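INTERNAL AUDIT FORM
Audit reference: QA-55
Scope: verify that the stored structure record matches its stored sequence.
Auditor: D.O.
Record contents follow.
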Amino acid sequence: MAQKSNHIYNVKKRALIEAVAKKAFWSYCKITPSKVADGKLIEKVLVHGDDAQRFALLELFPVEKIQKVWERQLIIQEPRLHDLNRKIASSLFHISNPEEHISKSYKKYNLYDRFSG
């Protein structure tokens, strides 16, 4: 049973990698699922994927893991990814006050702002 679910995981992971590879990875022709870290795949799908691909992440990973990557990798790229961050907060995580959540996460995880000044 574990082998079957691992196979399904690899198939779904490969499908997501192939879906965003040309936009997200520098050398996409040689990518295999085992060479792409989960966090990196989550980040690339959130940034370069469409809504269906973002929701497909929920089939592969716990929502907490996806949200952790989003908060630590994408929110700190404010204001460049502001519209995307709002969309992800609302549609993927159903956060009632996206602006407040983004602001708090930005202050928490943006090391440059925390240690400069």
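Auditor finding: record pair retrieved intact. Residues 2-24 form the longest helix (23 residues).
Action required: none
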